[in-house]
Amino acid sequence: MHTRLPIHNLSSRSSLKPPIISHLRSNALRTSSLAAFPAAPFWSSPSRSSSSTTCNSYAAPEVYDIAFSFRDFESEVAFLLAAYQTHSSGPLSRFLEVGCGPARHSILLSQATGATCIGLDLSKEMLAYAAHQAQQANLNSDKIKFIQGDMTSPGGISSLMTDDNAGLVDAAAIMLGTLSHCLTNGAALACFKNIAEVVRPGGILILELSHPGELFGGSFLDPLDFVDCWEVSEDGDVEFAEKRSSSFQHGDEMDPEQQAAAEIQGKEEEFFDDKEESDKDEQESESRTSIDKSSKISDGMRRVLVEYGREGDDFDPATQILQRTVGLSLFSKEGELASSDVSVVPQRHFSLQEIDLLARASGKWVVKAVYGNLDENCPLDGEDAYRMVVVLQREA
User: What is the pTM of this model?
Assistant: First the structure.
């Protein structure tokens, strides 16, 4: 996320912006359903598909929720509402969040507007957690509903929206780069068509994607440029690592879960050593990633250490798929490692032209606007652009 555009390299920006988390949005995508799509061209198979795994963090939704609680969901929902007012008409009475995860956007949007929100996700654990969060926010089942399903399923999303969920929605959103789980054009096109079936004519679909500067700036070919790590406490305080050089290798010789137990405590110490010791290590030419110990992370709280990308992760320029290593490690209030998950997750990265072509191919969508952040005042080529946010309108 990189002049190249200032998208992703956290250490190069004076105002740190979090990376878009495209791997970890619970993806509402069942890979077995891809067999229903037309045969893909020979270049579409990820070069390391055999080493890809399902991210087990979806089965630990509270850990996931802590890991990304630093995001300003209130302002993001304000953007969703502003985009709807700009590019659609009429009241926003029904909203669909695809790949909703903990459903923070839906919960806040329903609270702010009174709209009925529907969250779609493949993970039953995520949906149970989201329902609990909605209950804690005093939203009853008339205002927020959750359905388990696959955003690319040949049966579509409309077949799931029956009974209490029946009826078209005014707007839909796929946030946190969730569309990147659609690894082929067939999967992405099926997703576009499925959502079109449940959005009214004139309604909108908002996509939050990684910035195309990541593709065209060459950052995926740099072994360090797409590597990020941060620590966040359960109250949302976050510290991002200052990237100097990666201190750990991909470790193809070990299974990711086997690596986790051996490495994660060492990573915790490396990332959060005090500045004096890290400077000493740097003088000794030892590659490290560190954060000043005087962080805002509150003592006595659980915290999650996030590793997003690892040196050696493979990017295939033919398929535009990055095999990204993702690690989530939960530390107790006492600082002990409570749980960890390390997975290799394939992510497809899209250009704007591809999104436009997929929209046209669906026969139902047209691109209305493109932004460089969840901010209507931030153009795609703006100084503060580090995402690609596309607003599509449902045609009649």
Answer: 0.78
User: Class of the 31-44+61-213+349-394 domain?
Assistant: alpha beta
Other Cβ atoms within 10 Å of 302 Cβ, number: 19
Answer yes or no: are the C-beta atoms of 244 and 288 closer than 8 Å.
yes
Tokens of 173: 């959103």
Q: Which of 253, 251, 297 lies closest to 271, judged by CA?
A: 297
pLDDT-based confidence at residue 217 (cuts at 50, 70, 90): confident
Residues of each domain in the chain carrying CATH 3.40.50.150: 31-44+61-213+349-394
Distance CA 301, CA 295 (A): 13
Closest among 215, 198, 196 to 363, alpha carbons compared = 196
User: Per-residue pLDDT tens for 153-166?
Assistant: 987 798 888 766 67
What token pair was written down for 229?
A: 């790590």
Interatomic CA distance for residues 248 and 268, integer angstroms: 12
